[in-house]
Amino acid sequence: MNATDTRERILGRMFQDIHKNGFQGLRADRVIADLGITKGALYHYFPSKDAIGLAVIAEIIEPSYLAFFRSLEQAKGHPIDLLKGHLQELSDKASPDDIYLGCPLNNLVQEMSPLNEDFRQRLKVVMDGMIHYSARALERGVAQGQVKSDTDCTAVASFMVAGMEGAYGVAKVLKSLNSFHRNIQQLLNYLELFRA
Amino acid sequence: MNATDTRERILGRMFQDIHKNGFQGLRADRVIADLGITKGALYHYFPSKDAIGLAVIAEIIEPSYLAFFRSLEQAKGHPIDLLKGHLQELSDKASPDDIYLGCPLNNLVQEMSPLNEDFRQRLKVVMDGMIHYSARALERGVAQGQVKSDTDCTAVASFMVAGMEGAYGVAKVLKSLNSFHRNIQQLLNYLELFRA
DNA sequence: TTGCACATACCAACTAGTATGTATACCTTT
DNA sequence: AAAGGTATACATACTAGTTGGTATGTGCAA
Fold first, then answer.
1. Which nucleotide minimizes the distance between its C1' and the CA of B4?
2. Does B6 touch chain A (CB under 8 A)?
3. B 141-180 residues with CB below 8 A of A?
């Protein structure tokens, strides 16, 4: 077991605990007991609880969310199909647990944005990225005649992200995978409106 | 100062504190210090912290959210106009603080649904209500030829709520009232699609 | 004189964080 | 290659400050 492994194991479990309990509900003691390590190990890698949360955002959440949206820059194909494909995949792959625990990004956004400016800014980077890359893809679509020329690309991209997060949230209270599927479907219908 | 007043003063401040800090971040000590009362008063009215949270949902959040949607049952006028009017009002009246602190309902949904089944069920009642009354209004619209006959009213109502919550969430991280306005506008455009 | 509406004082359990010890790998010097 | 020093990667034990909750007392109105 080398150092990198331990750090990543810690981060992984912290992510899971935050996903379920929120950052304020995160209990470092619970996680380290679960991992079979001690406080010495934890505080060797992270100076504080806040640092753990920020590391989870930067090293786990941000990469996993932005991977797809960044890939839009080089992706070939109709931007609306690409975006719809991604949403469809989210919908298809969502497990009951994914729905019950909600979107990790959205959870942290709702909880931490008003409480900690460092958190908010890190989360904003992710959200901005998702919207930005989607909007750029749509803009290229406009330029290529694939997307209606009067489309407000940023507004559509932003609403797509909002609809997605909202779909997670509603499904979470209702504890209903079907609700998620239905709402994503409505979002897909919405996106279709902008095809040229 | 009679008893009812004290109870409601407590509940009101608890709501504010929860709105900002979340339920897990709620500190009873902070609130009672703020109100100038003591633990004796607090625990005279509420047996536990959970009871406070549930009372806030049942007595403050639920009535304030469902008031409009219940009113749809007797409301005259085009259902799409009624729904759009409500969203437009939310958009117009939203203060920077409303956006920064987010939607109280959505905040609690994200935080508490996986943690406490009592909370989830109380919150689900509110969310179900919003969707249910909206869907019924749309169905009456279908019957009266105001709404397209092939409309999946529940799906549209559900997505409207999701879009609304999503709009709050995105605006919250971005700390942008404009983002909220834009996303609500997109939601209004979406609703317009179903006018007969 | 009984019950309601609080106030006061207190506590047990937790929780992030620290101070300190130690085994081991690695690197340098002789 | 052996010796010796040093940084890394943890483990152990402890603490200070919270935090929800309780036990008990008290003024007052009906």
1. C5
2. no
3. 154-156, 158-159, 161-167, 169-170, 172-175, 179
Residue–nucleotide distance: A63 CA to C24 C1' (Å): 34
**Mean pLDDT on B166-182:** 98
- C1' nearest to CA of A39: which nucleotide? D11
**At B86, which amino acid appears?**
H
Identity (one letter) of the amino acid at A177?
A: L
For residues B9 and A87, what is the distance between their CA atoms, to the nearest angstrom?
A: 45
Rounded Cα distance between B101 and B121, Å, is 23
CB–CB contacts below 8 A, A to B? 155
pLDDT at B22: 97
Q: If residue A130 lies in a helix (H) or strand (E), which one and from where to where?
A: helix A117-143
Please name the helix (run of DSSP H) or strand (run of DSSP E) that holds residue B124, with its range, or none.
Answer: helix B117-143
Per residue in B110-168, pLDDT (tens digit) is: 999 999 999 999 999 999 999 999 999 999 999 999 999 999 999 999 999 999 999 99
Question: What confidence tens digit (pLDDT) does each residue in B77-116 have?
Answer: 999 999 999 999 999 999 999 999 999 999 999 999 999 9
pTM of the model: 0.95
A1 pLDDT exceeds 60?
no
CB contact at 8 A, A194 and A148: yes
